[in-house]
Write a structure and sequence with these properties.
It is a single chain. This protein is mainly beta and 114 residues long. Helix content is 0%, strand content 57%. It contains no helices and 11 strands.
């Protein structure tokens, strides 16, 4: 079992920045990939970015150059630094771990005002 706890969401103006954190606990040795998904109202949940245990990253095209995912294995924490935020980034952001079963955090709201 893996438990994920997110923090760092909130309300920000367009062009601003936020950093999300996700702390993992439990069977953390089994985690291979950690990432962030988001779900906007009326839309399907989509992958935003993920990072492997070895630090290989992947981003959805819409956030490339603006978001950075990083991982601190010593703290069992993954971060999502979000810069140049746009109103279209408004969504509930979910932390995800593949271990190899899928585990999800409770979600944190990110709202970007225009």
């Amino acid at each position: 079992q893996v438990q994920l706890v997110e923090s760092g969401g909130g309300l920000v103006q367009a062009g601003g920045s936020l950093r999300l954190s996700c702390a993992a606990s439990g069977s953390i040795f089994s985690i291979n990939v950690m990432g962030w998904y988001r779900q906007a109202p009326g839309k399907q949940r989509e992958l935003v970015a993920h990072i492997t245990r070895d630090g290989i990253t992947h981003y959805v095209d819409s956030v490339k150059g603006r978001f950075t995912i990083s991982r601190d294995n010593a703290k069992n924490t993954v971060y999502l630094q979000m810069n140049s935020l746009k109103p279209d980034d408004t969504a509930v952001y979910y932390c995800h771990a593949y271990a190899p079963l899928s585990y999800w955090g409770q979600g944190t709201q990110v709202t970007v005002s225009s």
